[in-house]
């Protein structure tokens, strides 16, 4: 029996290259779901745990780690995140929205040269998501948004040649629950599409949204 077979909540992951708009669409979706009375947990990877903080501190010094060490850190962080946040929230029937999940490891560490099938196998401890919202923008647009909107220099993960490979890997994943969304469209239209997909999932799973209002 898989560890997540008793879960009652919903797990929705936002994925995409840097600059694809995951974080802002996640926030907008969380607000929408809460208005409807759903219990929502907003979370992200790298997490705020000890390994996640270490990863963030190395964002601009990626060369300090071998790619094997880097993959190991992302896996350790995911173990923390699943144990401390995702599984408890799913067990209590909440809707978990995570900004990145193991598809990012498959795409980014895959782009760095690690074997993608092995990465998926190494993540088999992590509950499968009910829905992955893959926000797609061309890599050059992602880099442009990082520079112009965030007024930041792209970090080591955000170089265009890397993001081209990451984008191709994301596009190649065959899972039926991955929904691809054109994130170059108007922000409002993108959010509308996301809400439609999530509302349909809630409907199918019988999530009516009174849970948090009643408690
Ligand atoms: P990002 O979502 O950009 O973090 P923030 O916007 O909060 O700074 O993610 C950080 C980077 O980590 C991103 O460039 C992709 C990379 N990453 C991996 O390489 N592998 C992984 O498994 C995850 C979760 C992230």
CATH class: Alpha Beta
What is the number of E strands? 5
The radius of gyration computed from the alpha-carbon positions, rounded to a whole number of angstroms, is 17 Å
Question: What's the story with the biggest beta sheet?
Answer: 5 strands, parallel
Q: What oligomeric state best describes the polypeptide chains here?
A: single chain
Which structural class fits the helix and strand makeup? Answer: alpha/beta
CATH-assigned fold name:
Rossmann fold
Beta-strand level of the residues, as a percent range? 5-15%
Q: Helical residue percent?
A: 40-55%
Spatial order of strands in the largest sheet:
2-3-1-4-5
What is the overall shape? Answer: globular
Q: What would CATH call the homologous superfamily?
A: P-loop containing nucleotide triphosphate hydrolases
CATH architecture: 3-Layer(aba) Sandwich
In N-to-C order, the SSE pattern is EHEHHEHHEHHEHH
Q: What is the number of independent domains? A: 1
Span between termini = 31 Å
Low-pLDDT stretches are: none
State mean pLDDT (0 to 100 scale): 93
| Count of helical regions | 9
Which hetero ligands occur in this complex?
thymidine-5'-diphosphate
